[in-house]
């Protein structure tokens, strides 16, 4: 299954790509998991603190995938099976998270010499350079590692939990409770007004010139459409209607799912929430292009759904990354 773009958006969502079947039916089959791990064709992503080994040559990059016999010990997470029935796992070595690049550096040094440079890298550095298969594998592996690294203990009784179902469940041996990987839904929206201007803003933690669309987490008991309207009203004081879904992509930093919308403003005056927004502006297409060309404004990375929303509104690709 290949997904390279989402209908309605200009260009692909680079972290929403995949070329594997997640093979949920195999997760609970211990015999299948062991046979797959023993198969010499199986390939493993070693993930350490959100990074993996990547081979780069010019503007191209690919994951360094190891056979199981060469993978280090650690928790195993089944990622899925491709169209050729090759199985893929991620391995997170014990105590690796937060230990820096030492483990991956050792693995890189042990690899035979080949074309390109091998180093440890994360999604922010190479996500846009990877192909569909590698991008999907790394997003999946990073998301699972991040969740497992913070859910070693049962939230009910404090006992150490055990990894089950190919890394997709943790079970408490003391009380039998099951705990599943967490995903935090967040809405991200390009707001336009009746003059067809778009709203871009800067958070107080960002340097001058870095602008993006608005975003925020969905609250308990809230619909996505209500979250869009609430977040915009809270952050910049603008009222919006007609929220229209545009696409979604995982953002595993550490566990967000970014759900993209367009929405129409019915008011245009700003009342900024200073802890969230340092400045906000309305831009026509001509004004945004001029600001980009002058260097006054820089846009989010092409890796982000924010960039896709802005370019979809504009009508063509833009330059001026963060």
Automatic annotation (TrEMBL):
Q: Ranges for the Nudix hydrolase domain?
A: 181-305
What catalytic reaction does the record list? a 5'-end NAD(+)-phospho-ribonucleoside in mRNA + H2O = a 5'-end phospho-adenosine-phospho-ribonucleoside in mRNA + beta-nicotinamide D-ribonucleotide + 2 H(+)
- Recorded E.C. number(s)? 3.6.1.22
Report keywords, A-Z: Hydrolase, Magnesium, Metal-binding, NAD
| Listed InterPro entries | NAD-cap_RNA_hydrolase_NudC, NADH_PPase-like_N, NudC-like_C, NUDIX_hydrolase-like_dom_sf, NUDIX_hydrolase_CS, NUDIX_hydrolase_dom, Znr_NADH_PPase
NCBIfam families given in the database record: PRK00241.1
Record-stated family: Belongs to the Nudix hydrolase family. NudC subfamily.
Official protein name in the record: NAD(+) diphosphatase
Say which species the protein is native to.
Answer: Streptosporangium longisporum
Source taxonomy lineage? Bacteria, Bacillati, Actinomycetota, Actinomycetes, Streptosporangiales
């Amino acid at each position: 299954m290949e997904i390279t773009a989402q209908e309605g958006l200009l260009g692909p969502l680079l972290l929403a790509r995949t070329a594997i079947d997640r093979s949920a039916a195999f997760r609970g089959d211990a015999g299948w998991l062991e046979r797959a791990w023993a198969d010499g064709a199986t390939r493993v992503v070693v993930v350490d603190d959100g990074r993996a080994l990547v081979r780069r040559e010019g503007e191209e990059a690919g994951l360094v995938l190891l056979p199981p016999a060469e993978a280090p010990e650690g928790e195993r997470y089944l990622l899925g099976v491709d169209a050729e029935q090759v199985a893929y796992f991620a391995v997170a070595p014990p105590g690796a998270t937060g230990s820096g690049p030492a483990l991956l550096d050792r693995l890189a040094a042990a690899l035979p010499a080949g074309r390109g440079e091998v180093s440890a890298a994360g999604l922010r550095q190479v996500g846009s350079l990877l192909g569909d298969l590698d991008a999907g594998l790394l997003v999946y592996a990073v998301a699972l590692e991040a969740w497992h690294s913070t859910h070693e203990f049962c939230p009910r009784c404090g006992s150490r939990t055990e990894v089950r179902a190919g890394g997709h469940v943790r079970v408490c041996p003391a009380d039998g409770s099951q705990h599943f990987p967490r995903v935090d839904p967040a809405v991200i929206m390009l707001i336009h007004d009746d003059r067809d201007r778009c709203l871009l803003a800067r958070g107080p933690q960002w340097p001058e010139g870095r602008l993006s669309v608005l975003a925020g987490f969905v609250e308990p008991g809230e619909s996505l459409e209500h979250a869009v309207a609430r977040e915009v009203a809270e952050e910049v004081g603008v009222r919006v209607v007609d929220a229209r879904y545009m696409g979604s992509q995982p953002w595993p930093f550490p566990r967000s799912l970014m759900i993209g919308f367009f929405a129409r403003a019915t008011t245009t005056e700003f009342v900024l929430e200073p802890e969230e927004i340092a400045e906000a502006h309305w831009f026509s297409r001509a004004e945004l292009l001029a600001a980009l060309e002058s260097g006054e404004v820089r846009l989010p990375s092409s890796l982000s759904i924010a960039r896709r929303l802005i370019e979809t509104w504009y009508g063509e690709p833009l330059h001026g990354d963060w």
